[in-house]
Amino acid sequence: MSAPLVLGIETSCDETGVGVVRGRQLLANVIASSMDEHARFGGVVPEVAARAHLEALTPTLTAALAEADVALDDLDAIAVTSGPGLSGALMVGIGAAKALALATGKPLYAVNHLVGHVGADVLRSDGTEIELPTIALLVSGGHTSLLLVRDLLNDVELLGETIDDAAGEAFDKVARLLGLGYPGGPRIDEAAASGDPDAIRFPRGLTQPKDRERHRYDFSFSGLKTAVARFVEQRRDAGLEVPVADVAAGFRESVADVLTAKAVDACLEHRIPRLLLGGGVAANARIRDLAAERTTAAGIELRVPPLPLCTDNGAMIAAIGAALVAAGRAPSAGGFGADSTLP
Length: 343
Ligand code: KG4
Ligand code: ZN
Hints:
alpha/beta, Nucleotidyltransferase, domain 5, 2 domains, 5-stranded mixed beta sheet, 19% strand, globular, binds 5'-O-[(R)-(carboxyoxy)(hydroxy)phosphoryl]adenosine, binds zinc ion, tRNA N6-adenosine threonylcarbamoyltransferase, metal-binding, TsaD, Gcp-like_dom
């Protein structure tokens, strides 16, 4: 069989993504975001996201098929994100994928969203291939996870994750606190560019010696967010101006420091000289720079897929679907629902 032609549907958070791949080749990657609708709330509202997926799914699907220049009938399989994510949002994609599979008679594959982020790397056009095992640091508005990937389809271990807010969520909340708007990540990146990252030292979550036992590779950003809020409040109460650029730079430094330090530690402990970054927060300039600096110093290869493949998208889900088909795996049983189990 030639490389399988697979359609992938992603609706775990606020992006409605539909992608089409032929094996490792990217044919279409169409994304509709409900970000603007969440802007007035300063963060993703699950109910709003689910409704937006319902409205966006058919046009996104139609656009992806047109971009790939394929018909539903041509497909070898359909793949859909089954979790982790917002359950109402996931249900929209899962329901649509099941209906499509039923109507076309195509096999349907449930794909883990985090595995999808790692799988995005196989679609890059520079001809290089991801080498396994690898450590993967996935950071977005919905998740902050450190994975050890030995085999994409069979052996993915969660080393740690956030115990409260996702990193992107922290960016969004701090940006709102500083009056910078939404989404917070790019706004903070912009403001921080003219700030001094050492002017204010904010706490580094879960990096105390006592955390090395239970939370070695876990993350926490709610204490950091509170520290920023307290700092801003004290300045305002004292009638002083808030040094927005310095606060943004100090906050960003704390997040970048913790994320990259733990990721590099995981590479060293497991003797894996490879680190893959993924998720929307991987767009952050300081996180990228610090990751590059620290991996180079430790002799670790750093891979960052191009940004449209880093953020939530349907093509990465299709890529995993294609790998499952190529491996001869049976389609998922029809009764699956939202599920965040890793392979
Ligand atoms: O992967 P993504 O598109 O998926 C969702 O979680 O929806 O990530 C979006 C998140 C948002 O929280 C946004 O603030 C953050 O990624 N983000 C950034 C940057 N660009 C986007 N965070 C930090 N720095 C950035 N430059
Ligand atoms: Zn994601």
